[in-house]
UniProtKB/TrEMBL annotation:
The gene is LOC109089619. This is phosphoinositide 5-phosphatase. It is an enzyme of class 3 (hydrolase). Keywords: Cytoplasmic vesicle, Endosome, Hydrolase, Lipid metabolism, Membrane, Signal. The keyword Nuclease does not apply. Residues 1-34 form the signal peptide. Its EC number is 3.1.3.36. It comes from Cyprinus carpio (Common carp). Gene3D superfamilies: Endonuclease/exonuclease/phosphatase (3.60.10.10), Immunoglobulins (2.60.40.10), Rho GTPase activation protein (1.10.555.10). It comes from the Eukaryota. One of its GO terms (cellular component) is early endosome membrane. PROSITE patterns: RHOGAP.
Length: 657
């Protein structure tokens, strides 16, 4: 539900006078502008330890920059880092960065944020530190199930003097053919990355709400439609212009699919991926990757000038080369004395206006219906809210009597509170869960500060799905779930498996959202004999199915027992024998299937340390939030079932019917 807000300007003389003074205040704020240098650096280190000085990269500028934003990807490729977000390499690379900063200035670390192997460091000259405020960090995982952090982004937002700046370090989906997945990752990051504000009455800030946005990282866009030898020949001739015309990111930006409004400087350096580690030689492995400009730096905002954009070939630690950009950014600086004087005058006028003007709005529509909502499908409606009063309105969606939240879990408002200024937009999204038992009915209460309440009625209907239905219900179904009346479903295992046990990166590389939707509809309608989509989309659908179960395969009531006996294989198996029959059957078939995958580990590169934590966390879920100790016990419990014993051999893997 997108709320578009229009502000009506009163014609009264007093209000016009106030607007004029507000304009004067804006002029005071922006009249003084200082130019500051920002060093942006990105480096995919391929899980390596720092083996060489970073000075040729970080101290490559003639004069020391005012700011350093240093981004890393693949800081740690170990399974522990991937699954528990722990890594000893964080302090090692932090120290290497600190030693590599420009020697002619003193720097202070403002903030660090890391998601698995994606890390962003923010350093500033000590003399500027006092003028930095409102520092917030956030992260978004876009890996499997849209959550795992092997791919995704971290971000730092802050205010420097009177300019709001957001810096994003992202690692998008890999592989040449997956450019649509990269586009999807970018859009998911923009949608899901939200920063809380110091003033809790204000809505969260999204990335694009900042004056300046700096985006860097391993964006993973590749060179398309050229053979590897042709690409290398163009590089040898330094014909980067021809090569750039085949760059996927350029093509997607030209089509305005991603990074709309962003700028990237001219690329006059050779591709930064992929090299043999420790050398300047192109990839000589069996895969012989086509060289590509995976590592990129872009910006969005006014008064930004790029002074250099380059790679640093002397560093050989990784199969990528680091990239840097030096930007000169105009920062708005407040004239404190003039600001204070003008502000006090405006406050006096506002006090007079508050006594004369009561806020009010007009809603274009007060009833909305979401029809045929599917699992993990967003629907949106739009209501226009017109401010027909004489003053700006502060609004907030407030809880109804005796309710903890302003809306039910399947509904969200963004922003949930804020000011009704011209052009302001908010969104209330449809559910991401699916259970035919829950009614889509709710009432949103829009409250105006010093004004009255407005009621918005929301109704809708779910299309039943096997995703989010219980195992016991699914086992009783005789026909596709969407062909059955809701009443029948309320009164009463889809088989999802990769097409080939030899496919690489199963359960680690995410699939495409569009393919998942086809798989979901296929399972819910029984319309196809075989599942559509790639191996990765089908395997991710399996994980999503398990994650959506209202009661996990190992029911919540067994959770404490499983943790207690996690180190004893025979006791673990005894617990499984006690599960309800349909839960036990699903558990046995899943473990048999995973054992079959492990037989082909030489092809698919899967091992127990990869599969155990991923599936353990889905099959054996805690009713409350898990700590790291519990996660390790859950993993230990499930590992017993990935190694075949004589008792397992009665369970033969087969494709479920």
């Amino acid at each position: 539900l997108n709320v578009t807000v229009t502000h009506c300007v009163s014609v009264c003389e007093m209000f016009l006078n106030l607007n004029w003074q507000l304009l004067s205040l804006a002029c005071v704020v922006t009249s003084c502008e200082s130019l500051n240098s920002f060093f942006l650096g990105t480096y995919n280190v391929n899980g390596q330890n720092p083996k060489e000085s970073l000075s040729p990269w970080l101290a490559s500028t003639t004069t020391p920059p005012d700011f350093y934003l240093v981004a890393f990807q693949e800081l740690d490729l170990s399974k522990e880092a991937f699954l528990f977000n722990d890594t000893p390499k964080e302090p090692e690379w932090m120290l290497a960065v600190y030693k590599g900063l420009h020697p002619d200035a003193k720097y202070a670390l403002v903030k660090l944020v890391r998601l698995v192997g994606i890390m962003l460091l923010f350093y500033v000259k000590v003399e500027h530190a006092a003028h930095i405020s409102e520092v917030e960090v956030e992260s978004v995982g876009t890996g499997v199930m849209g959550r795992l952090g092997n791919k995704g982004a971290v971000a730092i937002r802050f205010q420097f003097h009177n300019s709001d700046i957001c810096v994003v370090n992202s690692h998008l989906a890999a592989h040449t053919e997956e450019f649509e997945r990269r586009n999807q990752d970018f859009k998911d990051i923009c949608r899901r990355m939200q920063f809380s504000q110091d003033d809790l009455t204000l809505p969260p800030l999204t990335i694009m709400k900042h004056n300046v946005v700096l985006w860097l990282g391993d964006l993973n866009y590749r060179i398309s439609d050229l053979e590897v030898d042709h690409v290398k020949d163009l590089i040898a001739k330094k014909d980067f212009e021809t090569l750039y015309n085949h760059d996927q990111l350029k093509r997607q930006m030209d089509e305005e699919v991603v990074f709309v409004g962003f700028t990237e400087g001219e690329i006059d350096f050779q591709p930064t991926y992929k090299y043999d580690t420790g050398s300047d030689q192109w990839d000589t492995s069996e895969k012989c990757r086509v060289p590509a400009w995976c590592d990129r730096i872009l910006w969005k905002g006014k008064n930004i000038k790029q002074l250099h954009y380059q790679s640093h070939m002397t560093l050989k630690t990784s199969d990528h080369k680091p990239v840097s950009s030096l930007l000169e950014i105009g920062i708005k600086v407040v004239n404190e004395e003039s600001y204070k004087r003008t502000f006090e005058e405006i406050v006096r006028d506002i006090d007079r206006l508050e006594n004369d003007c009561i806020p009010s709005v007009t809603l274009s529509q007060r009833e909305f219906q979401f029809q045929d909502v599917k699992f993990m499908q967003h629907q949106a409606k739009t209501v226009t809210v017109y401010n027909d009063g004489q003053v700006p309105c502060q609004f907030e969606f407030i809880p109804k009597l005796d309710e903890p939240s302003y809306c039910k879990p399947w509904l969200t408002a963004n922003p949930a509170k804020g000011f009704l200024d011209p052009g302001e937009a908010a969104a209330v999204d449809s559910p991401e869960l699916n259970s035919g038992q829950q009614q889509l009915e709710d009432i949103l209460v829009l409250h105006l500060d010093r004004g009255k309440d407005y009621f918005i009625f929301v109704t809708g209907n779910y299309l039943p799905s096997c995703f989010g239905s219980s195992l016991s219900t699914l086992c009783l179904l005789k026909e596709p779930i969407q062909d059955m009346p809701l009443e029948t479903i309320r009164d009463t295992m889809p088989g999802v498996h990769p097409r080939t046990v030899k496919a690489e990166e199963l359960f680690q590389q995410p699939g495409l959202r569009s393919e998942f939707e086809e798989i979901r509809d296929c399972l819910d309608t029984g319309s196809l004999d075989s599942l559509p989509g790639s191996n990765h989309s089908v395997s991710e659908a399996l994980l999503l199915f398990l994650d959506a179960l209202p009661e996990p395969v190992i029911p919540f009531s067994f959770y404490p027992q499983c943790l207690e006996c996690c180190s004893d294989s025979s006791q673990c198996r005894q617990i499984i024998s006690m599960l309800p029959q349909c839960h036990k059957n699903v558990f046995n078939y899943l473990t048999a299937f995973l054992q079959e995958l492990l037989k082909f580990s030489a092809h698919n590169r899967l091992d127990v340390n990869i599969l155990a934590p991923i599936f353990a966390g889905l099959l054996l879920r805690s009713p409350t939030k898990q700590d790291s100790t519990e996660k390790r016990k859950v993993k230990e419990f499930f590992q017993h079932f990935l190694v075949q014993t004589p008792s397992d051999r009665d369970i033969h893997y087969k494709s479920p019917e």
